[in-house]
Design goal:
By secondary structure, the chain is α/β, with parallel strands linked by helices. It contains 7 helices and 10 strands. It has a 6-stranded mixed beta sheet, with helices on both faces. Strands 2-1-4-5 form a 4-stranded antiparallel beta sheet, covered by helices on one side. The protein is globular and about 45 Å long.
Length: 227
Amino acid sequence: MIELKDVSKVFQNGVEALLNINLHIGREEFVFLVGPSGAGKTTLMKLLYREESPSIGEVIVDRIKVNEIKEEQIPFLRRNIGVVFQDYKLLLRRTVYENVAFALQVTGAPRSQIRRLTMQALELVGMVKRAKSFPNELSGGEKQKTCIARAIVNNPPILLADEPTGNLDPQTSWDIMELLDKINRRKTTVLVSTHNKNIVDGMKKRVVAIEGGRITRDQQLGMYSQQ
């Protein structure tokens, strides 16, 4: 499903973000990506949806060699990858419904399908009653639920979440993680980058740790820190 083979990423300013990364994530897995700020977690995520390209190595997502596709093929790659951001990236002048529906509109989906899938996604995340609200009327948790609905509205096989609880209180953070776990049980592969020790320790999922651009630990039923 996701595979990185001997991947390194060195930016033009000489910063070595990732060094010799080898990682395989199977279909329907739930994986936590942990490590200190600047370790390379976000860069790794960006490689998967071609926001960045590796300096060397091979990135494969759902059997697609990501670093070999042409620029015009990137939108089609991203239709198979839902992305949830820490800072939400919602369209401020659009309602909750319109933010989620927009992800389908850009694909040219028919109006009836857009409405059906958008309402299904909003129901899954518990945001139907807020469908007509604007982002500035939402709590942090509601914004993140909207972001998740937008990410899964076209039923992608892969969901990436980069620090999805970074701006949320502890209880809301658990609500978001339980929602991601629910999505995973619907046979979606989920990769979550996080600094939240309590959630990682409590959920007992596979944990991949990165430090200094290198994978230092890959542990099933793992904890945030090495035991």
